[in-house]
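Onboarding guide, step 5: your first structure request.
Type a short instruction followed by the sequence, for example:

Predict the 3D structure of this protein.
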Amino acid sequence: MFSKKNKEQNKEKEVLLAILAKIQNPITGKPLSSEPIEISRQEDGRILVKIPFAADRPAQLSVEAQIRTAWASSPLKKEKLKIEFPPAKKPANPMGIPPAKRLSSVKKVIAISSGKGGVGKSTVTIHLAAALYKQGFKVGVLDADIYGPSLGKMIGQEGKAALKIINDKIIPYDFHGIKLMSFSFFLDTGQAVVWRGPMLGKALEQFLFDIDWGELDFLLVDMPPGTGDAHLSMAQLTEVDGAIIVTTPQEVAVLDAERSVNMYQQVNIPIIGVIENMSEFICPHCSNTSEIFSRGGGSKLAEKTKSPLLSQIPLTLSLMKASESGSPLTLQEKTDDDTSSRVIEAFQQASSALQKLLAVNTP
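The system replies with structure tokens like these:
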């Protein structure tokens, strides 16, 4: 029995050390397997891995993500890992990357984020951008979802877009006065992006600093779902004034959104507030409402994270059609449709709340 236990422990160490040998310490450039790693089995059955990597928290999170990704493909993938680091440091130059630069011509950079896909984050982003624009602000939208860019579809631009380059700067796509940039503008319809993490970070850097954004009051950044490389890259590349978390009412969406909140807190990006999307379905025939995705998730998340609930966006047939046709409701001059009016009012409420929280005056 003792011999079998020792063999299992040796197998665990062997697999883990093989994984760590392929992951570099971003500070020293040496494999993590060269560090004095401690590996043990806890009473609850989890495998504890102690890594003496005293860096800032984003760097530790990046290393942990690489370990867990490799572990998920290992022979021991069913075993649960617990990874511990020393207390995180706050170096002046984290991970050897220059300090985050301010986009000098942009007053406010806002990340629109969620913990999971399918909550309507991109729909919220383009409609919020249009609501701000209609109130007189200069607005830009950056689609940071390199692997699944959807901004093109949201504005009716299928496939590649003809973009100009002037003085080595790309001129963003102009959509009714809103400046847009998305990787979808460089892809054929349905074309996949098969990149590793470092390439993604470089693409985001170019989208931030090699685009001629001009003078903007707001740059809304439509982040990919989850808490991965794109979010860490954004935190390291430029100063982000805050994040808006989008969730739907059901518990599973709120749970994932809370992870997104925790990630932003760890990289010192303040949470501006929560937007609950698909808060209720409004029937296009009788205007009765149905809480098809449960209720109260946005309020619970806002209360738990001590941040305001900016707005609750209803789910309507008109909103779906607007997103499919590339014509955001909040850009429309007027509408006689009651359900559309309620959607527009909800986004105007979010826009006004955002301005108040950031102390931005209407032009």
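Each response can be followed by summary notes, for example: Confidence is low (pLDDT under 50) at residues 91-98.
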